[in-house]
Amino acid sequence: MISVSLLCLLFTIIEGANICNLRDTTNPTGDVSSPNYPRNYPISQQCSFTITVTIGKSIVISFKAMDLEQDEDENACYDSVEIKDLVTNDKTEYCGNKLPEDFTSKSNEIQISFTSDFSDAGELKPTGFRFTYRAIANIKRTSVCPGREFIGNKDGGYISSPNYPLNYGNNVNCMFTLIVPAGKKTTIEFVEMMVEYEPGCRNDRLNISSATESRIICGQGSPKGSVFHGVKVFFHFLTNRQTTKKGFLIKYHFTDDETYSNDCVCPRGNSYIRVDLTQKKLLRHTDDIRFEFKTTQSSSLLLHAMGRHRDFLRVKLVQGQLKFSVDLGTGKGTITVPSRALNDGQWHFVEITRNGRRVKVNVDRRVAGIVETPGIFTKLDLRAPNALMYVAGSPRRQHGSNFVGCLKNFVIDNRRPIVDALRGDPAHTVYFNPFPRCFAT
């Protein structure tokens, strides 16, 4: 048999404590309602109380019911419940019959006030409100606005929309860059996501990207987390001039990135790597180029390097055949490797070695061709002020179609341009879209 005291306790839990009977409190949790809830509340009420929790914490208000009288146009409140942050003096007023989103204070002290006017709502008979509250740790967070570069805390941290946990503004356009410690990968977890939803995220949206991944998020809920590789993670937050919402809170942390030893990427024809060679001042008598590729594309550019005067080096796929060209300044030497079509969707290993004017090309570990460049020059001069190298394509496809397929184990004279690009080395830039990873063996 249930005791009278237990029945009273259950009644209190279901209905919440009458706001007009409450005194200021330091309780970290509570359940509060309008007078007489869930029945019609009385007229001419003016009640308030203060919640104070431990310094360093915030207060989350979660509304369970909302039915307070407002005008027909929903522009003004006749009866209302107001939450005021006593540190920032920010005020938020609620009325109507739409359940509000959670409110999170910026400080540890808020005042909650209930007001009803002198008139009866007539046939509407609004039932009032009920909410629960709880204290949470006041997380130290970094806003994506203003846009800037931010060195991530080695122990991780939090990134939020501007003004969080209050609503973000209209016409926001912020690019925030998280600098990642070398050799680390970044794991992103969504603590809260409340951004205006539109199919395709055409209105408000958050774009998170790195050298290898890109993701666009909008809507409400807790999206699945993501892992981003590279020494920079970019957060681009855009909003329109209409609806605003609470925004987002993201938790990030760093862990060792064992995938840097695996440079397998699968370009889709809309990206390439540009390597700035101007600081390297390369003047080489020998070259050693090795990589593996697979594709079904018949013709594309795999590698192009150019430097002083007419010096250049180029590797292409032409009608399914591998073609290598080099000019040391006194004439071009070219090898088109005779073989079965290499655009069969299978992995193929390429090794190109140059010693002075003599060049040897191996495909699938078989000697496929040897050529000597004309003239007397024996060194490839890549010391020009505009010396550049491209991998998997080039601007405006000026040296051939961009590569579509997969590349791995790409090494040029003991340098690994794909690995350096994935790590975010400033001399290695990925244009224009991230390289999807393939993690092939």
Automatic annotation (TrEMBL):
<dbReference type="InterPro" id="IPR001791">
    <property type="entry name" value="Laminin_G"/>
</dbReference>
<dbReference type="InterPro" id="IPR000859">
    <property type="entry name" value="CUB_dom"/>
</dbReference>
<dbReference type="InterPro" id="IPR035914">
    <property type="entry name" value="Sperma_CUB_dom_sf"/>
</dbReference>
<dbReference type="InterPro" id="IPR013320">
    <property type="entry name" value="ConA-like_dom_sf"/>
</dbReference>
<keyword id="KW-0677">Repeat</keyword>
<dbReference type="Pfam" id="PF02210">
    <property type="entry name" value="Laminin_G_2"/>
</dbReference>
<keyword id="KW-1015">Disulfide bond</keyword>
<feature type="disulfide bond">
    <location>
        <begin position="201"/>
        <end position="218"/>
    </location>
</feature>
<protein>
    <submittedName>
        <fullName>Uncharacterized protein</fullName>
    </submittedName>
</protein>
<dbReference type="Pfam" id="PF00431">
    <property type="entry name" value="CUB"/>
</dbReference>
<feature type="disulfide bond">
    <location>
        <begin position="20"/>
        <end position="47"/>
    </location>
</feature>
